[in-house]
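Recap from last week: sequence in, structure out.
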Amino acid sequence: MRQLNGHDASFLYADNTHANANVTLLHIYDQSTAPGGKVRFKSILAHIESRLAGSPMFRRKLLRVPLNLDNPYWVEDENFDVEYHVRHIALPKPGDWRQFCIQAARIHARPLDMSRPLWEIYVIEGLDGFLDLPKGSFALLTKTHHAAIDVEHGSEITLLLHDLSATPQAGTPPAPWFPEPPPGLLPIVCRGLAHSVTSSLRLAGPLTRALRNAAPAVLAAAGDVLLRPQNLPVTRFNSIVSPHRVFETRRFMESEFSAIRKLVRRASLNDAVLAVCGGALRRYLGALGELPAASLSAAAPVCIRGAASGAGDPPDLTLLHVQLGTDIADPVRRLALIRDQTASSELSALAEGARELTDVAQHAPAATLALASKVMGRAALGLGRRAPLANCTVTHVPGPSAPLFLCGARMSYFSAIMPISDGRGLVFAITRYDGRLVISPTSCRELMPDPEVFAMCVRDSFQEYLAAATARKKPAARRKAVAVVVSVKPVRPTAPSSGRRPRPSPAA
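Predicted structure tokens:
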């Protein structure tokens, strides 16, 4: 038995009838690499069952404390049934990409059964209408609740279910599993009452320290939001979302994004991705006649390093608000604006303060977190009518760094569908795998009735940047070629052999 911390529990409290915190990962496989060139559903089911012991997430469910006196607990499901969680479906003919996106979005939108472990896996066949995939390809859709798994560590589940070669070594049979009985309600309620009384004492010190350290940056950001609402315009995506999700995706070569980021000195790959997303928003809203005069902003991941971090420690990843430069027509200037923001020290100070406030939330009482989640959701929606906290979210979902295999079938595609919420009805999920970078926008049907058009705007924005990067390379290549020609001594053609000595040529 393990209790949820405040951060994970907040995702449960924020769920409502039309928006949930489901995180969906999409994997597509080429089964021609599998033994015999065929992978059957029963083989996938047996493979998943053999990996259940690798993570406690698969067999644990929620045990809520009455009246939200404390955060819920993870307990083992005494009636666990793997065949309930692993399902087999197929797309109707012709089985094209649009059908796949619609089916994946519908599965993602359906809420999970909170009385069971919070995950589902769908094996999807019938993908023969995909133009760029080998015949017989199939997909694996894994859906989990955000409370059960962190997006930053989502690749751990992907790595657990996959192998690094098409012929993995035979493992030992899984040990028998016997679930632990759940605790009684009386001890849970007593513990919740004690925790509610003592949490305020534990919270006072960290809260005071976090507010003191984060006050300047947080107050500055609040001033930008509350005192200057004209800088944060409202779009169609800053409204109430519906229960109906839409999803699309576009794949690009990671090397091409590396060329794009070189348009601006010291720009990162993340800066280039943000610039492409900003260009897509500019194109889409401009075509609808809804492009605001002021720049739109995104809640985007920024790497920071805390004062206590060592030299070898990885930087922390924090969501910060970044202007996307949708009011700038020149793509290079837009990328430069984003680079200036992500490199500023003020953003790092704000990120440090936000991280400390997140640490404080780990110790807040459950009833306080539940109430705060509802109040913050309503406040964000009410504020969104005048000045939204951000117009969209750009989230990087870590992917595998090496090619993976499922029952011998090589994974050829990896992307994600992220949750949206009221006031924040557009999310870009960014995934990287096998030399490719995938941008996957998620929204709802009422706010984005034409997701394929939005995906084309993403592609056109990328092509605009790639053309600028290619045009910059050509003059440099031309100068290098000229330098090479000048440095080589010219060779004069030899006169045809006629028995006479050739005339000496004049000196240069």
